[in-house]
């Protein structure tokens, strides 16, 4: 089946079984390896992408569900060599260690910050609750999201 959708701002199509996971299509058909496979069961968040702006676990989403929608992966967040303010904040705050969970964390943060200019710590914790990190203890990740909120709010003025 031919599945057409917008991927990182570009209209694309994939000839695939619509039941195949979106993760497999992104990694194998489009060579977008920033989206990681962790548990393969939708529990760890390493495979998080944004589907029409909402974070989803691409390992359990059938590719057919992306038809006619917009998918954003970590590769689509930066503009050329310019990091997105969320990515920059993660680096500045030392929120990146092994990096395996970071694409999903960043995209979950983006979804939150697209909706809220100044989220509370509770809001941030809820937004990233679907993403497991084994390295950081989350404190620096939460600080990075707060910092990114400030950066993005400054851009909107």
Structure commentary:
This protein has 157 residues and is an alpha+beta fold. The chain folds into two domains: 75 residues, Ubiquitin-like (UB roll) (Roll), CATH 3.10.20; 72 residues, DNA polymerase, domain 1 (Orthogonal Bundle), CATH 1.10.150.120. Helix content is 35%, strand content 15%. The chain has five helices and five strands, in the order ββαβββαααα. It has a five-stranded mixed beta sheet, sandwiched between helices.
User: How many angstroms separate the termini?
Assistant: 45 Å
CATH homology superfamily of the largest domain:
Beta-grasp domain
Low-confidence residue ranges: none
Tell me the quaternary state.
single chain
Instruction: Kindly name the structural category.
Output: alpha+beta
Name of the CATH architecture of the largest domain: Roll
Mean pLDDT: 95
- Under CATH, the topology of the largest domain is which? Ubiquitin-like (UB roll)
Tally the beta strands.
Answer: 5
Please give the largest β-sheet.
5 strands, mixed
Strand order of the largest sheet: 2-1-5-3-4
What gyration radius follows from the Cα positions, in whole Å? Answer: 15 Å
Helix content: 25-40%
CATH level 1 class label of the largest domain: Alpha Beta
Strand content: 5-15%
Q: Secondary-structure element sequence?
A: EEHEEEHHHH
Which outline best applies?
A: globular
How many helices? 5
| Total domain modules | 2
């Amino acid at each position: 089946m031919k599945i057409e959708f917008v991927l990182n701002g570009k209209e694309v199509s994939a000839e695939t079984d619509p039941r195949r996971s979106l993760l497999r299509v992104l990694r194998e058909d489009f060579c977008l390896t920033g989206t990681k496979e962790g548990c393969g069961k939708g529990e760890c968040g390493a495979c998080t992408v944004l589907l029409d702006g909402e974070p989803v676990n691409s390992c359990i989403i059938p590719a057919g569900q992306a038809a006619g929608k917009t998918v954003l992966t970590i590769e689509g967040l930066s503009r050329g060599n310019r990091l997105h303010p969320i990515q920059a904040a993660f680096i500045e705050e030392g929120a990146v260690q092994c990096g395996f969970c970071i694409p999903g964390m960043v995209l979950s943060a983006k979804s939150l910050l697209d909706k809220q200019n100044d989220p509370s710590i509770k809001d941030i914790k809820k937004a990233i609750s679907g993403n497991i990190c084994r390295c950081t203890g989350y404190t620096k990740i939460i600080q990075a999201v707060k910092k990114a909120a400030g950066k993005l709010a400054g851009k909107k003025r």
